[in-house]
Amino acid sequence: xxxxxxxxxxxxxxxxxxxxxxxxxxxxxxxxxxxxxxxxxxxxxxxxxxxxxxxxxxxxxxxxxxxxxxxxxxxxxxxxxxxxxxxxxxxxxxxxxxxxxxxxxxxxxxxxxxxxxxxxxxxxxxxxxxxxxxxxxxxxxxxxxxxxxxxxxxxxxxxxxxxxxxxxxxxxxxxxxxxxxxxxxxxxxxxxxxxxxxxxxxxxxxxxxxxxxxxxxxxxxxxxxxxxxxxxxxxxxxxxxxxxxxxxxxxxxxxxxxxxxxxxxxxxxxxxxxxxxxxxxxxxxxxxxxxxxxxxxxxxxxxxxxxxxxxxxxxxxxxxxxxxxxxxxxxxxxxxxxxxxxxxxxxxxxxxxxxxxxxxxxxxxxxxxxxxxxxxxxxxxxxxxxxxxx
Length: 390
Ligand SMILES: O=P(O)(O)OC[C@@]1(O)O[C@H](CO)[C@@H](O)[C@@H]1O
Hints:
Layout: H1 18-37, H2 42-57, H3 70-76, H4 90-104, H5 120-127, H6 130-142, H7 147-161, H8 166-172, E1 186-187, H9 189-194, E2 203-207, H10 215-227, E3 233-237, H11 250-261, H12 265-279, E4 283-286, H13 302-310, E5 313-317, H14 318-326, H15 337-340, E6 348-353, H16 364-374, E7 385-389
Parallel strand pairs: 1-7, 2-3, 2-5, 3-4, 5-6
Antiparallel strand pairs: 6-7
């Protein structure tokens, strides 16, 4: 099979497949959770029920005529509206589901529910778990270690933080604990550090994934990059609106910074430093509309392309960003990461735990060992992780 031409686009219509499970099990469970988490009135409850019915039994319907992005989604969905949710590309249907969930709860509509993040209670609870507290307390000990060890630990903290994804944990039963003793299936961390020599005017774009227990370690890594002159400036890309359950928005960044700032010990010092870095423009938060587009990064608009082109390194966090980076296709696992990302306008690194079928850049031996030990579950179970750089 020619890796660049023929790898099939992932759909959700194969019973038992990962994508099928997301649409038929994960999404209904999420609707129920959101319904239970807020005292929604009859209008929102009816709309949530309608979304459940539509997404499990019906055909894909357009957004409300008065939705601000109605025309945009109609254009993106030209080939998909009216079809079964299971029969269209998984990346598109999953992204559209989150957009429709916001419509159901009145997120964009003038009125009392406007701007209320339906996932906020779950994100908030995340920050206050015992494990999250322990992770912050561990910074006091880490600060005593050699700087290189700190750097590697913070990189791994950010990487494994990606396992703390609420959508994933709702169904897998995974408790979000780190598997950081599992060897990475690909590890280009040396290349990553070599791209960020200290003392140069480097700009790093970090394209965030989840809030809470992923965003906190991302911020800790950013503080290290700034503090040890690996970056003069960091641009933190977040979602312009709630998405994929726990994806970070600007509000989540503020919440995490406040949380850090109020913590004891080193965590509190880091929080104060990051707060000041935002004030000085060394850390910028960016919420580009394309971050919530149902499209691969290969189709990014020119302004975003220019931003990534200008960066010394772009770090893509998480599974969804990985799917968008390499394309949501069933590539052979040994397909080249460099080739899949050659369109990207600058150096790019992926930090991701494996939570969907997409994977490239493995060597044959690694793939064989993974298949022998775990059948195909290693691709989606979140027990494995990678750092890939081009
Ligand atoms: O991007 P993230 O948070 O790492 O992962 C998102 C995720 O949990 O959601 C999708 C299924 O709902 C999959 O792409 C992936 O497993």
